[in-house]
Design a protein that fits this description.
homodimer; 192 residues; 2 domains
């Protein structure tokens, strides 16, 4: 989604910008957070931000909703176990103060910007799809699933369920939610 | 959600208001649609609208997203068949020009109004939950499922998947989508 700079100083600036966004959006909400305030807290110039992100929506998305993209892919030995870990990571992302504060404004900006919206599947969801594909490949190797699982559909189902309950309804997740979702999904796609 | 008037003239006014909303939101979008324009097109006074609905969000929700609430509950003889019909009704609701035009603004208004948001589960989703409960009771009578299906979770899964793909990603539904979703959900909750 963004060009990752190779130099350590740029890496530090990148991390400082994302940390500043996470703090500021939780403190003041999405609409009130200015990129000037982000730049000031991160100790960079505003041009550094504009060089790397198309605008506030993309910047907040990366800061708030990509925490698990670089985490190791779970390998618990069962499809249900692996999906439980992945769904719990989604739940954790949607439950942070920054995510709760950001989501309404972020949704409105994504809905209004067709160029951003068109990149959700092709760019923003791609790391999650890759992680899910690894899990399904392992399940297939264990003969738990066939070779033809519709990864996009399962991804939409897992993300959509968590997004709808936590992000739209504003409910909090009980301790069983990840496993309850994973159990239905795993059973729904396993070979019998 | 609203007090249904018993007198025929009020019934006609109610239907005229909902029809006017459906037309106007598709023509001009959610933000630009005024309740004054709705009243004028429906041939009623604005006070008639304010007596029945808390505001634009609730009015548009009822006009656009409750079409299937009064439809007969499907009874195809199989859980997958019944769920396919219910999911297709959801897809049809989310695919109307009025729904596509209304959703971004409606989402933003619901997200900003905690009183509305708190009523999604208890009021707005209740007719769909009742329909799903009838389907699960029949499946249990056929011994296809146990007695303990988590209806709220399955409802969030079905609505969330359709909502995420059509409403958030803006993708259109292929002819197989309803059955693909229903197959995974039915298999996921059936007794083995």
């Amino acid at each position: 989604m963004t060009t990752r700079p190779g130099r350590p100083r740029d890496e530090r600036a990148h991390a400082a910008i994302l940390a500043a966004v996470t703090e500021l959006v939780a403190e003041s909400g999405y609409a009130a957070m200015s990129l000037g305030a982000v730049a000031a807290r991160a100790g960079v110039g505003k041009d550094t931000i504009y060089r790397r992100w198309s605008g506030k929506a993309e910047l907040v998305y990366e800061a708030v909703f990509t925490a698990s993209d670089a985490a190791p892919v779970p390998d618990t030995g069962s499809l249900e176990g692996d999906l439980t870990v992945l769904v719990q990571q989604l739940i954790d992302e949607f439950s942070t103060p920054a995510a709760v504060a950001a989501l309404p404004g972020l949704l409105a900006d994504f809905a209004a910007a067709s160029d951003l919206r068109a990149r959700i599947r092709s760019a923003f969801l791609e790391p999650a799809k890759q992680r899910l594909t690894v899990v399904f490949d392992r399940a297939h190797a264990r003969r738990q699933t066939g070779p033809d699982v519709d990864v996009d559909l399962v991804l939409d189902g897992l993300v959509g369920t968590v997004f709808f309950r936590l992000g739209i309804l504003g409910e909090s997740a009980g301790p069983e939610l990840a496993q309850d979702i994973a159990r239905i999904a795993a059973k729904g796609i396993e070979s019998r």
